[in-house]
Amino acid sequence: MTGSASSQTGTPQVVPLSIGSGQSVDTELIARVDRACAEVEGSPGALLVLRLTGTAGGGAPPADLSIHTVNKWERALRRLERLDAVTIAVADGLCAGPALEALLAADHRIGGPELRLRLPAAAGEPWPGMAVHRVANQVGVARSRSLVLFGAEISAVEAVGLGLVDEIAADLDRAVAERVTAVGELTGSELAIRRRLLLEASAVSFEEALGTHLAACDRTLRRMQGVQPA
Asked: NCBIfam families given for it (predicted)?
């Protein structure tokens, strides 16, 4: 797995975060996500690499999980999703539970050949958390139906076909290293603006979106001309 790189090599700093499919959503997991986000936020030019591991259990929420904890978990994922930095997720085996929820919040997703995706489940039914919202927005309602309503499991090939995973790699460490190098020159704050425009595209009309897109274009033009954006 890629670790924090030396600034002397020109390689961006990598902040790692591991989340298991069978992990419980609890205060410890939420704190780890928040700590990783804070480290990225405090390190200009850094990026976040999520290592998502699978287990046979599939990450069903515990019976004593409170709605307060669920709310804090969703907010932690939203913080991760809106970082002023690139987020890369790498997963193999069964990616379910909190691992799947984190995958859906990442910018670039790399899967191993044995990857399978399944939405979190509770009491034998798909969990109705914000993963449902992300899946529907990312692949459309019709293509999400079997995942959301019946908890269908999809393979790595199917995940790529749906756009839920960007690439399949036999050597995951190498694929991560190549992606880190490829995105190392991206400006985190500008990427965050483009990400927000993308996330809002399906919910905002052309007229409502025009001003925001023009402002983003103006920032890019100013940077091209060597003028510090406002």
From this structure: EnCoAhydt_DpgB
